[in-house]
C-alpha cells in the first residue's frame, strides 16, 4: 500500500486526487467500505448493483433485465445521453429455427424489440431474424468502438464445438432444439445487457441490428480460423509478453483495491459456478433415477398378490413419478435462474478485466512516448555539442521533439480520461451486480420453496393409501 506522500507524488495518481477524495465512490447506500480509508484491506471491498431480473416465462426465452437508470455524468467517455429516460426498451429472443441442411445448416433467432422514447427508433415494435454470427459481429463492432473509451462491453456466448456439431451434423430435431433453447436465453441476456448501457443503447449498429428486417452483411471476423481470429490470438500473445516485460506499477490506490476485489470475486464466482453445475447434474441424475424407480415399482405392483399392497405400490409409483417430474422442473430452474446467471457474471468480470487491461495499454503508450522524448532530447544535445551549433539533423530532431511532446500530452490526457471512465463503469457494474444477485437469490429461494411445497403435497396425497395397507 502506498504512503500518502508516495501517493501524491505519483505521476498520474495525483491528477485523479479529486475523485479519490470523494467520501464514498459507490453511493450513499454503501456502508461496507470507505475507499478513502487506508486501513481498509482489498478483501473488504464490496461492489453493488441496480439491475432486476424478470420472471422466466417459457423455456424458449431467457430472463429479462429491467432497464438501468444512471445519473448524469460529465465524463465524455462513459457519459449518458441527454435524452429522457425511455419508458420501455425490452428485447426478447422469443423463437428460433434451423435453416439449411448438413454443413450448411444454421440456426436463426427471432428478436422482438419493444421500445418507446429512445432517439432513433421510429416504431414501437420491431421484429428481426439474426444468426449467431450476427451477434458475434455486433460484439466485434462494440469492442472496436468502445473498449478504448473504458466501456465495459458484455461478452456474448462463446462458440461451442459440440453445439456446432449438433446443429450441422445431427439429424435429430430435439438435439438442435436443445442447443437453440439454451443459446436463445444466453443471447437474450447478452443483448438486454447491451441496451442497458446508456452509450450502446443509442449506437447506430445496435439500432440497425434490432430494427433492419433484411439480412445483415455476413461477418467474416467471427470465425476462429479467420484472419481476424489469428490476429486476435497474436494480439493477446503480445499483451501477455508486454505485461511480463513492461510491468505497470500501480500508483492509484483505488484501482489497486478494486482490481484485487475483482480478482477475488472472479475466483469466488467460478467456484460457485462449478458447484451449481454439479447441482444441476446431480438433480438431473436424481430425476432419471426417479423415473427408473417408478418403472420398477410399477412392475412390482403388477405382480403383487395382496390387493391393498398392490394398490399402495401403484400409488407409490404415481408419487415417485410425480416427484421425478418436480425435480426435473427444479433442474431447469437451477440451470436457467442460477447457474447461467452466475456464468453471465463471470463473463462480465472478464469484460471488466479487459477494460483494466486497456488502461494498462494506454499507460504503456504514454510511457513509451516519454522514453522516446528522452532519447530524442539526448540525441539533439549530443549533436549540438559535437557540431558546436545547430545543423539540419538538429533542426529535424527539434521538430520531432515538439511532435513527441504533443503526442505525449495527448496520451496523458487519454489515460486520465480513461481512468475516470473506468471508475464510472466500475460503479455501474457494482450497482447492477448487487441488485442482480439479490433478485437471483430471492427468486431462486422462492422456487425452492415452491418445489418443496409441491413435494409435500405429493406425499400427503399418498399417505392415506399407505395407511390403508392391510397386513
TrEMBL record:
Region (Disordered): 34-56
Topology with respect to the bilayer: Peripheral membrane protein
Subcellular compartments: Cytoplasm; Golgi apparatus; Membrane
Superkingdom of source: Eukaryota
Transmembrane segments: none
Acetylation found in the keyword field: no
Domain PX: 87-217
Entry similarity comment: Belongs to the sorting nexin family.
Stated name of the protein: PX domain-containing protein
Organism: Caenorhabditis japonica
Amino acid at each position: 500500500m502506498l504512503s500518502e506522500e508516495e501517493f501524491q507524488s505519483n505521476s498520474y495518481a495525483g491528477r485523479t486526487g479529486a475523485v479519490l477524495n470523494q467520501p464514498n465512490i459507490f453511493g450513499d447506500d454503501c456502508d461496507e467500505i470507505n475507499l478513502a480509508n487506508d486501513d481498509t484491506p482489498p478483501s473488504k471491498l464490496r461492489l453493488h448493483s441496480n439491475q432486476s431480473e424478470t420472471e422466466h416465462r417459457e423455456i424458449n426465452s431467457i430472463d429479462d433485465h429491467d432497464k438501468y437508470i444512471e445519473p448524469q455524468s460529465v465524463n465524455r467517455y462513459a457519459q449518458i445521453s441527454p435524452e429522457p429516460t425511455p419508458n420501455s426498451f425490452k428485447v426478447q429472443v422469443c423463437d428460433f429455427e434451423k435453416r439449411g441442411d448438413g454443413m450448411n445448416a444454421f440456426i436463426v433467432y427471432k428478436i422482438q424489440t419493444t421500445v418507446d422514447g429512445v432517439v432513433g427508433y421510429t416504431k414501437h415494435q420491431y421484429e428481426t431474424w439474426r444468426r449467431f454470427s450476427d451477434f458475434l459481429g455486433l460484439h466485434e463492432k462494440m469492442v472496436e468502438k468502445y473498449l478504448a473509451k473504458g466501456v465495459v462491453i458484455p461478452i456474448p456466448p462463446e462458440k461451442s464445438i459440440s453445439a456446432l456439431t449438433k446443429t450441422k451434423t445431427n439429424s435429430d430435431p430435439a438435439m438442435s432444439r436443445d442447443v437453440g433453447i439454451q443459446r436463445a436465453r444466453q443471447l437474450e441476456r447478452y443483448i438486454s445487457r447491451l441496451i442497458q448501457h446508456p452509450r450502446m443503447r443509442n449506437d447506430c449498429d445496435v439500432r440497425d441490428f434490432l430494427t433492419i428486417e433484411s439480412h445483415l452483411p455476413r461477418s467474416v471476423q467471427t470465425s476462429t480460423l479467420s484472419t481476424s481470429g489469428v490476429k486476435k490470438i497474436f494480439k493477446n500473445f503480445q499483451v501477455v509478453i508486454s505485461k511480463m516485460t513492461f510491468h505497470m506499477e500501480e500508483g492509484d490506490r483505488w484501482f489497486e483495491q478494486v482490481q484485487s476485489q475483482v480478482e477475488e470475486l472472479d475466483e469466488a464466482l467460478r467456484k460457485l459456478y462449478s458447484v451449481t453445475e454439479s447441482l444441476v447434474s446431480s438433480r438431473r441424475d436424481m430425476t432419471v433415477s426417479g423415473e427408473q424407480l417408478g418403472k420398477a415399482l410399477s412392475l412390482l405392483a403388477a405382480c403383487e398378490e395382496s390387493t391393498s399392497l398392490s394398490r399402495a405400490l401403484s400409488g407409490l409409483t404415481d408419487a415417485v413419478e410425480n416427484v421425478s417430474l418436480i425435480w426435473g422442473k427444479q433442474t431447469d430452474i437451477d440451470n436457467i435462474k442460477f447457474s447461467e446467471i452466475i456464468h453471465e457474471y463471470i463473463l462480465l468480470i472478464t469484460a471488466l478485466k479487459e477494460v483494466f487491461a486497456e488502461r494498462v495499454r494506454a499507460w504503456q503508450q504514454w510511457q513509451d512516448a516519454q522514453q522516446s522524448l528522452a532519447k530524442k532530447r539526448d540525441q539533439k544535445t549530443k549533436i549540438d555539442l559535437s557540431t558546436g551549433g545547430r545543423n539540419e539533423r538538429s533542426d529535424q530532431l527539434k521538430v520531432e521533439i515538439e511532435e513527441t511532446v504533443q503526442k505525449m500530452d495527448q496520451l496523458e490526457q487519454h489515460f486520465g480520461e480513461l481512468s475516470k471512465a473506468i471508475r464510472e463503469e466500475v460503479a455501474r457494474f457494482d450497482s447492477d451486480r448487487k441488485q442482480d444477485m439479490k433478485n437471483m437469490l430471492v427468486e431462486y429461494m422462492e422456487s425452492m420453496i415452491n418445489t418443496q411445497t409441491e413435494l409435500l403435497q405429493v406425499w400427503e396425497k399418498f399417505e392415506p393409501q399407505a395407511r390403508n395397507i392391510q397386513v
